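User: I'm putting together notes for a lab meeting next week and I want to include a structural view of one of the chains we've been expressing. I don't have a solved structure, so I'd like a prediction I can at least talk through. The sequence is below, exactly as it appears in our construct file.
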Amino acid sequence: MRLFNKLLWVCAVVLFATPAAFSQDIIVFKDKASDEIQVKVLEVTKKSVTYKKWSYQDGPTFTLEVDKILAIKYQNGEMQTFVKEKKSDSKEKSAKTREDKKVVSEVSTSKTVDAQVVKADDTSQIYSLSRSQTTSPAASTTTANNVAAAGNVSESVSTSKSSVLPAKLQPTKSYSVGDFFEYGVSYFAPFEEPGTGFYMVGSQMFFGDKGFGAEFRVGFNFGLVDSEYASSIFLIGPSYGYAINENIAVSTSLNFLGAYSNDEFNCGAAFMPKVTLKFGKVLPWFGVNASYGAGADDVVFGFQVGVGFTL
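Assistant: Thanks for the context. Below is the predicted structure for the 311-residue chain, given as structure tokens.
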């Protein structure tokens, strides 16, 4: 309504201007239709109007943006108006153009999405999910007002144990040391006298997948030494293990060592690293040990071998 009133004002100026007014150009402003200046227009472009003041045509040249001009009334009686296209129409056309481009770009599209799925039981078994989606257009027509596209869409989802990611980007598979929880028998002896060791029964257990656990074993050397030196021992202490892969694990234990012989009880400590192999439910293992106390005056180095079983 405001713009319409301004145009009426310009028309009134045209109809009722005095003949003297036709001797110069008149610029009417948008902000206030009653504001106008008498000029000599030199050049009109899409963005600006170049002019000189009518009263000082030998003076400087001025430039005015067309956004501020409602109309120009030329000295020959012609009139040029500057009315911008409505923003709503412009936005509607722009949105329609973007929509048309989007529909066209979606025709005949092929893409592959890679994702990794980890099993819910946290065994860290990695799978690759490859999804392929292809659209083949039967026909597509684009006009200024609409875009019609028809096609057949086929989608296939396949799962495989081989990942499509580069090797360097492959997630590292972890193994659970809890799979090496075992109950079994073993032989524990010093290197200096390997035939005077102890037959042991016991277990090494791990609490979850983090590596922490405990070891407990008891043993006897009856029949391996003279009866007056026969004794029994037990080992108990914390353990820590690490699974290198699903068939090999390394672990170590720091055990309290108790020995009973000739009605006398002695105690000490034993450091016992070892390597465990896994063949199904059978777990053979071997290692070394360093023990102190339990009746010995110095550190005694020895070995240990055994076989365990998982439940």
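A couple of points you could mention at the meeting. The CA atoms of residues 98 and 104 lie 10 Å apart. The helical segments are 2-16, 87-106.

User: Perfect, that's what I needed.
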